[in-house]
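Notes to self after the call with IL:
- keep both proteins in one doc
- input above output, always
- annotate only the second one for now

Protein 1:
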Amino acid sequence: MSAAQKISVTDRDGAAHLVEDVLAAMEDLKAVLEAETGLVRVGRFRDGLSQDGRKSELSAAYLRGLEAIKANAVAIARLVPDLVPAFRDAHADLHRVVEMNQTVLATARAVSESVMKGIAEELDRHTKPTIYAPAGAAPRRQGQARSEPLVMSKQL
């Protein structure tokens, strides 16, 4: 039996408590995501990604709560209809923050991959001899050794 099936809303207080708990989890998750986004934007990757454990816990709590709300949607709509618009607004706000976070993380990844590729190409260029064949084209050699692989330290 899942956590969502164990929670059964039978009165107004129970419904309000469930919705408020999920709203609190969403706010905490949103705060962690916003902090991560801000730190990654300014290049502080290690600091930005240091809250992964907390982010996972909050995501799990949010998803469990969301399942419980889905399982009790009719009761919540009947018992605490005033909290439904607030929940929808908070959910939409969290969705915007998640999208922004994913965009920033994808951009940071693309930039770091581009930088690493550029460094590798530059190192490779410096290890190849500069020789020209007739008509200015570089000669093609069979079995020409490539440069050493790029090694980087994660201890920056």
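Protein 2 (the one to annotate):
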Amino acid sequence: MNGNMLATLLPLVLLLVVMYFLLIRPQKKREKQVNQMRSNVRVGDEIITIGGICGKVVKTKEESLVIQVGADKVKFEVMRWSISKVVENANAKPTKKVSVSSEEETEEEEAPKKAMPRRLKKKAAEEEKAEEPETAEEAAPEQEPAEEAAAEEEK
């Protein structure tokens, strides 16, 4: 009778052990990471709250944060537990990826796009347009010797 009871309880015990390793343990690990992320929030970090509000941390307190939101730079206080994630700064330099790619791709990765005022965007667009004819003129001299040779043959 003792062996029969052991055989009956063994699957139940195995099920509990499997559930612990597949569900409970990873959830505790994830919760620990989230709490660490929330406690490491610093002034200047970009965050997203659980309500979907995106803002920049202006001031930190023990259990709350003051964030700055929107074009009007409205400031309000949120609790630390309401932080969903910390957004990586756009100012931070991206890490270099080792790959077999052309030099142009690596230059693009190293130089992130900067936010510019409208006036500067217009000037940059005008400069790009000014550079395009230069590249066309550079390509044209390659064709000119062939055209010159053809013109000389016609003479």
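Annotation: The two ends are 116 Å apart (CA to CA). The beta strands are 46-49, 54-60, 64-69, 74-79, 83-87.
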